[in-house]
Amino acid sequence: MEPRKSPGSAPGSTPGRLVTTTAALLRERGFHGAGLTEILTASGVPKGSLYHHFPGGKSELAAEAVRQSAAGMVAALERFADRAGSTGAAVRAFCDRYAEDLAASDFRDGCPLAAVAAESGALHETVRREIGAAMELLVGTFARRIAAENPAHPDPAALAMEIVAAVEGALLLAKALRSTAPLKTVSERLAGRIAAELHPRGHPA
Question: What is the span of the domain harbouring residue 25?
Answer without folding.
Answer: 14-198
